[in-house]
Amino acid sequence: MMQSVDIAIVGGGMVGLALAAAFKDSDIRVAVIEGKAPEQSLVALPDVRVSALSRSSEVLLRNLGAWQGIIERRASPYRAMEVWEQDSFARIEFDAQQFAQPDLGHIVENRVIQLALLDQVQQLPNVSLFMPARCQTMAIGESEAWLTLDNGHSITAKLVVGADGANSWVRKQADIPLTHWDYGHSAIVANVRTEEPHDSVARQVFTPQGPLAFLPLGESNLSSIVWSTDPSRADRLVAMSEEEFNKSLTAEFDVKLGLSRIEGERFAFPLKMRYARDFAVERIALVGDAAHTIHPLAGQGVNLGLLDAASLAQEVMALWQNGQDIGSKRNLRNYERWRKAEAAKMIAAMQGFKDLFAGDNPAKKLIRGIGMSLVGTLPGAKDEIMKRALGLKGQLPELAKARTKGLV
Fold it and tell me: What span, in angstroms and rounded, lies between the C-alpha atoms of 245 and 400?
């Protein structure tokens, strides 16, 4: 069966569904192709893959109608952040009240975000969902692209969007080169129960082995951890008994919240920086992890991807309303320049952070301590950092700008 659409989005995760939902008030015909339908039911223990949603992402999801679905399922606001370095005086704290904010962000399971967006997309008459279905072939013509799916369907589209993750099939089919490097770390993710309550504070300690973050979840003593360390050590930690792992984790976290005990499974995955040479070529655009991946130490990966989706939708809508070709590379240059610049700034910032806290040379530790103390005391310095963390700096798409007072 052949179906003709205007946009085919390959990937029905958080970013792909956000892009589809962004066309809710248009007559643009959209197809979303996703290989795996998410499990609808949530169990008591949260998933280990979570995201720290910034204020701009919250606003975007509100404007897409998905925020209520997130809150009704499970979301954990955090009111403060503590960042320190092990064995030095380097330390900085942020509190939502200091910035007249209700919170600094929300820790939300990736699947919860996906499900809330799926609720919205399923209601749209201009969106066709192919889930589960996988692309088998893609051919690019002068005015359209052809996709064949493993369920026997074929789709033609003026624009194909790769929203299919770090190992993007679309990017590979289009032979788009990738700049990449290995961060030399793997990240361990797990749910952890602590003796003492987290008080809705996100905490991160920088150790000589790498950063360890405790992200507060809905229960007062339950957190999601992201523990970055060298791959061989990560493998050993994952293979340890629970008792050994708990001891290592508690010590690494400076016994900050008392004894830490793992609950459920733990996973490790390698951390790599990826940056596609092109975010747009003829008939193809890339968003989210298909275009870029960054170190998770500031939790900005999904926020960057959601802004990609909103930015691409904004550019495509403008082209559509002016009767222009939405799949022409020339017409997609604004999107590419916009998002490549934002991604490059974030990649550079994350690399700078990682380099700054690498190593335990006493002189370097002294510089880090003085630097963090200055940031904490210099007028406006903390405000500037917080605006970036909240996602309120840079060129924001319209969907990420508050339409009601009190959100920013």
Answer: 40
HSE, side-chain direction, 13 A CA sphere, residue 340: 16
Cα separation, 75 vs 394, in Å, equals 26
The answer to whether the CB of 154 falls within 8 A of the CB of 146 is: yes
Q: Are 161 and 234 in contact, with CB atoms under 8 Å apart?
A: no
Buried-exposed string 44-62: b where 16+ CB fall within 10 A, e elsewhere:
eebbbebbbbbbbbbbbbb
**Total residues belonging to the chain:** 408
Task: State whether the Cα torsion 393-395-397-398 is positive or negative.
Answer: positive
Residue 369: CB partners within 8 Å, gap ≥ 6? Answer: 85, 88, 89, 90, 91
- One-letter amino acid for residue 117 of the chain: L
The confidence band for 301, taking pLDDT boundaries of 50, 70 and 90, is: confident
| Statement: the pTM of the whole predicted model exceeds 0.85 | yes
Q: Which two tokens stand for residue 130?
A: 């192919």
| CA–CA dist 196, 108 (Å, integer) | 21
Contact 45, 263 (CB under 8 A): yes
- Two tokens, residue 383: 């405000």
